[in-house]
Amino acid sequence: MALTLNVNGDRRGFTADPVTPLVDVLREQFHLTGVKPVCREGFCGACMVLVDDRPTLSCLMPAALAQDCEVRTVEGLAANGTLNPIQQALEACDAVQCGMCFPGMVVTLTHLMKATPGATRDDVRSALTGNICRCTGYESIVEAAVRALAAT
Ligand code: FES
Ligand code: FES
């Protein structure tokens, strides 16, 4: 089936089975390998992207349902090459370990910052409940998010 998706401002047509998970289309057609297919069952959050500004598990969403939507992956969160405040704080706090969970964390926290001005530490922890880090490096990630939120 012919499909067309808008991803990070790039509109592209391709052929795929319409039930192909969005995560696979993003990686294979758009070569956006920041989005990670880890559990493929909706548990880990590593495949998180924004679909029309809503955090969405791309392993559970058929690509055909993303047509006519604006999809944004971690690769599309920096503006003109400048990392957003969450990305800058995560870098400053040296919050990344193996990196497998990280793109999903960044997507979730970027959405929190935009959607919930004045979000608290508890809000950050709550927002991250759907993002599992196997390296268990939550403390530095939460600290970075709190710092970024406090600076806005
Ligand atoms: S790969 Fe989608 S939630 Fe784990
Ligand atoms: S940094 Fe390794 S899974 Fe989170």
Summarize model confidence as the mean pLDDT.
95
Shape: globular
How many H/I helices? 5
Helical content, roughly? 25-40%
**Distance from first to last alpha carbon:** 45 Å
The parts where pLDDT drops under 50 for at least 5 residues are: none
Kindly report the spatial arrangement of strands forming the biggest sheet.
2-1-5-3-4
CATH class of the largest domain: Alpha Beta
- Report the CATH architecture of the largest domain: Roll
How many domain regions?
A: 2
Secondary structure layout:
Elements: E1 2-7, E2 10-15, H1 22-28, E3 48-51, E4 54-57, E5 70-72, H2 85-92, H3 102-115, H4 121-127, H5 138-150
Parallel strand pairs: 1-5
Antiparallel strand pairs: 1-2, 3-4, 3-5
Helix pairs in contact: 2-5
The chain binds FE2/S2 (inorganic) cluster (2 copies).
Give a summary of the structure in a few sentences.
The protein has 152 residues and is α+β, with helices and mostly antiparallel strands.
Q: Can you describe this structure?
A:
- By secondary structure, the chain is of the alpha+beta class.
- It folds into 2 domains: 2-76, Beta-grasp domain (Ubiquitin-like (UB roll), Roll); 85-150, [2Fe-2S]-binding domain (DNA polymerase, domain 1), CATH 1.10.150.
- It is 32% helix and 15% strand.
- The chain contains 5 helices and 5 strands; from the N terminus they run ββαβββαααα.
- The chain has helices at residues 22-28, 85-92, 102-115, 121-127, 138-150; strands at residues 2-7, 10-15, 48-51, 54-57, 70-72.
- The protein has a 5-stranded mixed sheet with strand order 2-1-5-3-4, with helices on one face.
- A hairpin with a 2-residue loop joins strand 1 (2-7) and strand 2.
- The structure holds FE2/S2 (inorganic) cluster (2 copies).
- Residues 37-40, 42-47, 57, 59 line the site of one FE2/S2 (inorganic) cluster (FES).
